[in-house]
Specification:
Blueprint: E1 18-19, H1 35-41, H2 50-55, E2 58-60, H3 82-87, E3 94-96, E4 101-102, H4 105-111, E5 117-119, E6 130-131, E7 151-154, E8 157-159, E9 166-168, E10 175-176, E11 181-182, H5 189-192, E12 195-199, E13 213-219, H6 222-227, H7 229-240, E14 251-257, E15 261-265, E16 274-278, H8 289-292, E17 294-295, H9 300-313, H10 324-335, E18 340-346, H11 381-391, E19 394-400, E20 421-422, E21 432-442, E22 448-460, H12 463-468, H13 472-489, H14 492-512, E23 523-525, H15 531-539, H16 552-564, H17 567-574, E24 577-580, E25 590-592, E26 595-597, E27 615-619, E28 623-628, H18 634-641, H19 662-675, E29 683-688, H20 694-698, H21 712-723
Parallel strand pairs: 4-22, 6-12, 13-14, 13-18, 18-19, 28-29
Antiparallel strand pairs: 1-20, 2-23, 3-5, 7-8, 8-9, 10-11, 12-22, 14-15, 14-17, 15-16, 21-22, 24-27, 25-26, 27-28
């Protein structure tokens, strides 16, 4: 039975976790049982819900080819009471690889599944309770923030749900600002919501909150001017100057660089911006701070004048060098008093001064099947600078606008290595486990805030329950993070082997706890049936693939995405969604706000699912492809794409026009529905069957064989072979 709260718990020894993990190969050789024998061997299915029973259903992966659900599956639901489910943290914000927490480390080891958390702390929320109390209530012992999963012993005492310490309820907490009532602390917003934000007091500040400060570092060398980016940047910033996050205190500044560093005086009262050139890049002199970082409201016209003038100032430049390092050092000196955001635009390798780099990529090794070289930095200059910036609350965004080698490895030196958690003490005396994450930050309005997320999950004692609660998408994302770390600390081949072994270990553990019946196939519980497919898809990502030509910068950028993107974005990147959209109907469609949104089924990522009579949408997260077959219905081409036939389609089409046709409205409604919860819109490409760009489309069909990688079926055979060793 699942308790409704922590009131039934007595004491408890759950004192947190330490971070340890390893991906090892497990040489277990037990055969797989029938379902009834499996039930008994795994501790029985008695008391297991019908949904959990389905997640434990054995699936023969070599026989059941259509394992993909018809639409993207929601995360598994923790087996909690309705009251706890209502207040639990959203899996889009806080997600665990196992929705059933093993009671002991021995049980976790037996399952051979990683235990870890994925957090998206700043996910956009339609409703975010903001607490403005003078007193932020926290446990006196472990400093846990009060949350929906604490228990109130009476109106004056509450028990912490992490360390079980009994704490006093402050007088201020007795008043509920929402209901404007007194004497009901259990109805406070902090205790009714698992995600809240506190307005922090001075106790949480090292200095008064600073204004929003923006400094733009712009490459103005010959290659930068030739790229045309300067015109685009200046016009874009002019169009959005009023939208910069901040308030009346917002400050802004600009620095340009080539072989020298240029500052711009934008102080109020000047008739036009003044440019100061510093040629000594070994010891960059910083002019008066107040004239370079100015109040945007007071100096807005000067800022606009500079943005209008900048593109023409360097039109005829012949400077080919880049002093990026000295420019960054200058930015650090400028921003240190206040902190803020530095946005850098760079079009070539830094060639002068501190932090200069040389090309390390050998184009002949891009298709190597062996270890990839130079995934680590060539110098520690950028790491040291990044640490210095972090210490002064300075963030740096880098936009690389070069088609040539840029040594992106330098930008990833502050990655945090990921471990899975381990269970140090038995959780036998509790039925629930909680995780809490708190983030202290300064908003663009200059307010110090603390955003707190709390997640509650059941504790289980049976191996069957651990397998039933496996969140395969969260597991795959955690392993992707760990594989990136291993490719840097060890080698790419070790990282790839670790991913394969993770599948082998898990399926071997599942088989090892059954009877002596030997199956002829490769068996997985239904909850983990997509595990081999997702790992194969990871192995074919630019970050981790071998044997396919991959530029080093593209590989490192893919690594950055896997390390930093939220789960849903990573999953679309690793295993994109494929739909046929030329024959969509209103059958099973969603009806939202007077719009009819078709719901075509997800298709397997294989060319077998494509037909030249159709049009197929591939959603990869940051990019979408619409592949149009040579014999596609001309009505679709005309009513959706706006051209008479396939032959008249251009090869560089990057958007779908708004046409007043049923086909067009239906298609645009579906695509808009796919994009509605995303922070940015992806690039869009219409791909013709005979175009050279179709290679970009077909590389995402991860179930198909390539010259250097298994097909999905071949990969399953490989897993089966490894399990038999």
């Amino acid at each position: 039975p699942v308790p409704n709260s922590y009131e039934s718990l007595e004491g408890g020894g759950y004192s947190g976790t330490s971070l340890r993990c390893s991906l090892r190969h497990l040489n277990a050789r037990s055969p797989f049982p029938s379902l009834s024998e499996l039930s008994s061997a795994l501790g029985g299915l008695g008391g297991v819900s019908e949904l959990e029973a389905e997640t434990l259903r054995p699936v023969n992966l070599l026989q059941e080819r259509n394992i993909l659900p018809p639409k993207r599956a929601p995360p598994p639901e923790p087996n909690l009471s309705n009251d706890l489910r209502k207040v639990n943290c959203s899996p889009d914000t806080f997600r665990c690889t196992l929705t059933n927490i093993p009671q002991t480390q021995a049980l976790l080891n037996k399952a051979r599944l990683p235990l870890g958390l994925l957090l998206h702390p700043f996910r956009d929320l339609t409703q975010l309770p903001v607490i403005t109390s003078n007193t932020i209530v926290r446990c006196r012992s472990c400093r846990t923030y009060i949350n929906p999963f604490v228990s109130f012993l009476d109106q004056r005492r509450w028990k912490c749900n992490l360390c079980y310490r009994v704490n006093d309820v402050p007088d201020e907490f007795m008043y509920n600002p929402v209901t404007r009532s007194y004497g009901e602390p259990h109805k406070r917003p902090e205790v009714q919501n698992s995600t809240v934000e506190f307005i922090a007091s001075s106790d949480y500040m090292l200095r008064p909150p600073q204004p929003a400060v923006y400094l733009f570092l712009l490459d103005v060398s010959h290659s930068a001017v030739e790229s045309g980016y300067l015109n685009v940047f200046c016009q874009s910033l002019l169009d959005n100057l009023e939208k910069l996050p901040g308030d009346t205190r917002t400050h802004i500044g600009f620095v340009t660089f080539d072989s020298t560093v240029h500052f711009y005086n934008l102080q109020e009262g000047l008739s036009q911006p003044q440019m100061l050139v510093v040629s000594d890049i070994d010891d960059v002199f910083i002019p008066t701070h107040d004239s370079l970082l100015v109040n945007l409201k007071e100096s807005k016209e000067l800022v606009k004048d500079l943005l209008n003038a900048l593109p023409g100032m360097f039109t005829h430049t012949r400077e080919t060098q880049s002093a990026l390092g000295p420019a960054l050092q200058a930015a650090y000196k400028l921003m240190s008093p206040t902190g803020g955001r530095v946005t850098v635009f760079q079009t070539q390798l830094p060639t002068l001064g501190a932090g200069l780099l040389q090309s390390r990529e050998d184009p002949n090794l891009r298709s190597s099947t062996k270890n990839v070289l130079h995934l680590g930095p060539a110098t520690d200059f950028y790491k040291k600078l990044a640490l210095d910036c972090s210490g002064q609350q300075i963030g740096v965004d880098l936009f690389l606008l070069s088609s040539q080698y840029s040594d992106l490895c330098q930008s990833k030196q502050l990655w945090h290595r990921i471990s899975s958690m381990s269970i140090e003490e038995s959780l036998a005396d509790t039925s629930l486990a909680c995780f809490q994450a708190a983030l202290l930050y300064t908003s663009s309005k200059g307010k110090r805030r603390i955003r707190v997320h709390t997640l509650c999950l059941p504790v289980v004692s049976q191996l069957s329950e651990v397998f039933a609660g496996a969140d395969i998408q969260a597991i795959s994302c955690l392993l992707a993070n760990m594989a990136i770390d291993r490719s840097i600390s060890s080698s790419l081949s070790d990282a790839r082997d670790a991913l394969v072994n993770a599948v082998v270990d898990c399926l071997t553990a599942y088989r090892a706890n059954g009877s002596n019946i030997q199956p002829s196939g490769l068996i997985a519980p239904a909850a983990l049936r997509l595990f081999p497919l997702y790992v194969l898809a990871l192995l074919k990502q630019k970050a981790l693939r071998t044997g396919t030509s991959t530029r080093l910068d593209e590989r490192v950028f893919s690594m950055c995405e896997l390390k930093s993107q939220p789960l849903q974005q990573i999953m679309r990147m690793v295993h994109p969604d494929l739909y046929r959209i030329d024959n969509m109907t209103e059958q099973a469609a969603l009806h939202l706000n007077d719009s009819v949104i078709p719901q075509p089924p997800l298709l397997q990522l294989t060319a077998e699912k494509l037909t030249r009579e159709g049009a197929f949408l591939l959603d990869c997260g940051s990019v979408m492809y619409l592949w149009v077959g040579k014999c596609c219905n001309e009505t679709f081409i005309r009513d959706v794409l706006g051209f008479q036939n396939y032959a008249s389609l251009p090869s560089n089409m990057t958007e779908i026009p708004e046409l007043q046709t049923t086909y067009s409205e239906r298609t645009r409604a579906f695509i808009s529905w796919l994009l509605e919860s995303r922070t940015f819109h992806p690039a869009f490409h219409v791909v013709k069957d005979d175009a050279s760009t179709k290679t970009s489309f077909f590389q995402h069909l991860v179930e198909d064989r390539t010259e250097s990688a298994f097909s999905y079926y071949e990969f399953l055979l490989h897993i089966q072979q490894q399990m038999s060793k």
